[in-house]
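User: Teach me something about this protein's shape.
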Amino acid sequence: MENCIFYALVSFGEKPLAQYSGSFQGQFLKIFRNNLNSIEANTSRGFKIDNDYMIYYINENNITYLIITDIKFLKASALSFLENIEKEFLSAYANIDLNLVEEFGLNEEFKEILKKKYEYYNEKQEVLDETLEKYKDQLSN
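Assistant: First, the predicted structure itself:
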């Protein structure tokens, strides 16, 4: 399948908290762990892995929101997805000490949110107008 998200993950440092991959099978967690050194603190970016895949992420306050996509997936759509996940996660878990959460300790709860966003972005291939405007402003500065 082209132009899609294969995998979504939220982690605290190196500790995965929740993940979703739909019907896709793969070594996604291994790919995440193998690329930890490429994730920079308090940044948002994307980078190519192999020749066919991209990793996009937002990292803030040691929380990483990450997706693995087809190389043709729109960067603006990827960042919009990640911003939505970040907003939902911070809203749901603002008062939780993530140091005390075990690996995949939030998976049952947060997986449904990942699934809804994952399905939406894979089906619609749309970017929210406000996100497009934000990136246009950043590019013009």
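Now, about its shape. The first strand starts at residue 5 and ends at 12. The CA atoms of residues 9 and 19 lie 4 Å apart. If you'd like, I can walk through any region in more detail.
User: That's plenty for now, thanks!
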